[in-house]
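User: Here's a chain of 134 residues. Predict its fold as tokens.
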Amino acid sequence: MYSGASGCGKSTVINLLLRFYDPQSGTITLDDNNIKDLNIKWLRSQIGYVGQEPVLFSGTIADNIAYGLDIDKSKLSPAEQEKLRERIIIAAKKANAHDFIRDFPQGYDTDVGSNGVAMSGGQKQRIGNTIIII
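Assistant: Prediction complete.
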């Protein structure tokens, strides 16, 4: 995790790396390859980033974490759903989010509210970190 002085260009660098826009001059390379020549979907799948104000979707904490896997939970068997739940918990522990999630009355089944309004900024960031880890 990197933090730096306000206004030093952290967000700009991330936006350039993710190809949300291209540099006005020069090139950005990854292993000597211009990132403009790389498949953008692949490139973005290699980078994990949680901004200062991560967006959570309506649903439960577990649902939001599972979005990081890009799977349809409704198509999973009960055994597969249980394995997914275990994977979610392991990722939350790695992101130091498990303890505060567990403390909610419904734990991982807590509804985050519209756009995560039921969570503090720090809690949303740790859930965002969990999404990247999973």
